[in-house]
Amino acid sequence: MEALEETEEVELTPEDVISLNISDFLDDLETDAAVEKASVPSDEPDFDWSSIDTSHLPSSYKTNSQKEKELLQFADHFLQQYTHLCPDRKPLFVHPVNECGVQKFVSTTVRPTLLPYPDLYYWSGCASFVCDYLIMEPLKCPITPPSSLYSPTTILKYQRGNCFDFTVLLCSLLIGAGYDAYCVHGYATLEMCSLDQTQELCPRLRKPPEVPEEEDPNKYRIKYPLEPQSKFELEQKAKEEETKSAQEEEREEEAVTEVEKPRRDPLRGLRVHAWVLVLAGKRKVPETFFINPFTGNHHSTMDECFLGIESIWNHRNYWVNMQDCRKGCKDLSFDLSDSICWEIMFSESNEPSQLLTESPKKDKDDTVSDPSDALEQWGPYMSFEMPLSWVARIKVSYREYENPFSQGKKVILYDKAKQEKWAAYANGDGLVERLTVYADSDRTEEVEVKEWFKHREDLLYMREVNTQTQLITDHFSPGHPLLLKAHSYTSLEPETGHTVEFYHTARVDGLWKRFENATEMTEYFVGREDFLHMRHIEFGERDKKIEKAGITADANPRPIVQIKECFHRNPEKPADEDIEERIFMVIDDIIQLTYHLELHDTIASKVVFCRVIGREKREDEIFLSRENSVKYQPWSSEKHKNMLHLYDLLWELRAEQKELKQQVRDSEAEMLNILTVREDEEANIKLSVSMYNTAKRGQQHEATV
């Protein structure tokens, strides 16, 4: 008997083995579904759809009109023809029951709607709203489509649904916004079906594609010969680099633990999923693409996460995919007018259906039907007009639109990152999103935290925190009273290291960036008439005796040691008259000038004014002699060698030095004012409310009364 059993096992065909394996998987589907539900990020218990109240629903939900009954008959006839001609294909998702237990054709469940919110006029806004507003529920059986498809109004009311519910709602919004959108019934990977993004890179962390540098259009320019190199040495270097890269890849693969490796899915290619297809053309869409309704992300039709398509539909028709999906969706044609690739249910022309023109195979118990007979049966609804949707008008109130998260917030786990989202006004500081970046896949060691804000009166919209260096960078929208654009700091205490960026076009002095710490200050300028682009100030230590006396920093300013300014080239001046750099050594009483270079020059002209040794310095006195002036101007004209010219120049520099000292003190005072204002804004955070948001303004008024 044992030998007989062994021979029987050997004689099993591959098809039998596959069927046995699938039957084993089906036996474990309940356990597998339980594991998948545990992986879905939901803190609420399973929702009981059988307990929902349907008594208030319109009559169109509970009954079918005569036209809908005819539609269901035509759909049944189509299914019979389809199963007869394609017996190896899975059953189509055509007329599931709705929340009232009534069969409805899937195309009539799509309700094109344009909601009165600007963001929902674009596909990205519609996709974000749907994935944020609804709670994902996995399919009861991962390898079969659901037996029911509820209306978008019911799904919006209870804020939950499976992939088909997500898709129908999103497709309704997209068609209403003018997109050529379709619901797709197909197959996808385990990660996409179960909303597992722990192996994906967060979209916020994706770098934008690099724009290739344009080649020099002048093809006639001189090409200088390169240094001669040995081809043998280059080949040896290339081989060494290849071996090193191969070794590094092996080490990385060995370093990856079994937990980090993606698990093998025994149901790959069988997992049912639904998503949205957007065809190119309408709304100036340049290229056909997919939208995953669970995440709202844009995907190429070549994406390997999509493994096949059974059928698609919109509010007007239904198409069956007749193409080979063994390589996924990357080779599929989405020309729906091609009857070889797509079998349409209700023909939009007078041509007969492809299903009915093919002769069915002969069977022992079946007779061969004539295609003309089938065409006669098909004829009455060749140009059948789809009835209007039975779904009531889709409505989303402003409060529901502004607060899409039913659980208060939404948490998404990515590879080495965690994203949290809140509704507007949910947090007192205006926080609406937080992204935490980790150093490891277990998300235990924080590296960086990014936060996004809305409706803040101080116009703060983003904050970046480096948890390793404790460096904080605040970003502001245009319109701040202090014209702030960004502020980097570790503490709001003065002279602890601050970098402030300004909206320079709104400033008179053209300042766009300033860095200050206890010993120095650097300012950067843009678009100034005097061509100044950088100013660097060095400070000395304060008098310690005065500090011990408890005098404030305003009364005991830091002594200015040196002021250095850099200028861009002024083309209206000769190079030996155009100052590139000037340095005021305030304590040493030295002024140093460096001029720009002409194209043919190699050494810059310089002028240095020094203090006369042994002579007491007097206020408002200009003393010039050959002893305290050093000049090197090899390319200058005769007038630059005149002592009177140098005297006038020194007089101007002394006056400018006084003005620079005052400007430095003004910059210090401005930095102190910025820190005081920012500290007050953080201590008393206020959120602005739009004058059109009457509900929120009413709540704000009640809180103040």
TrEMBL record:
Q: Which organism is it from?
A: Melanocharis versteri
Q: Report if keyword Coiled coil is assigned.
A: yes
> Where are stretches of biased composition, namely Basic and acidic residues?
234-248
UniProt cross-references to Pfam families, sorted A to Z:
CEPT76_peptidase, MORN_DRC7
Q: What is this protein called?
A: Dynein regulatory complex subunit 7
Biological processes per GO annotation? cell differentiation; flagellated sperm motility; spermatogenesis
* The entry's keywords: Cell projection, Cilium, Coiled coil, Cytoplasm, Cytoskeleton, Differentiation, Flagellum, Spermatogenesis
- Residue stretches making up the Dynein regulatory complex subunit 7 MORN domain: 407-690
